[in-house]
Amino acid sequence: MHCTLIDLGFCVSSADPGVFYTWIGENLLVLTVHVDDCGMTGDSPKLIALYKWKLNYHDTVTDLGPVNWLLGIKVTWDQKA
What we know:
Low-confidence stretches: none
Structural class: alpha+beta
Number of helices: 2
Number of strands: 6
Distance between the termini: 34 Å
Mean pLDDT: 88
Order of helices and strands: HEEEEHEE
Strand content: 25-35%
């Protein structure tokens, strides 16, 4: 997965080698990876969908939809805020 992310233009965060990021124009995509769990976020739903497709093209991935649990941590968000 590491090589695929680099090939897709992602950089490895200097703070954590399991965090990858890329800028596409003014849009930021962030991908976190730990063993076989990963999560992606960004400010463009269209780019998130495109990069999910690109990742799946190179490596088989399963999209479980919006994150509810990641690494044993329950994830919640307030969409109104």
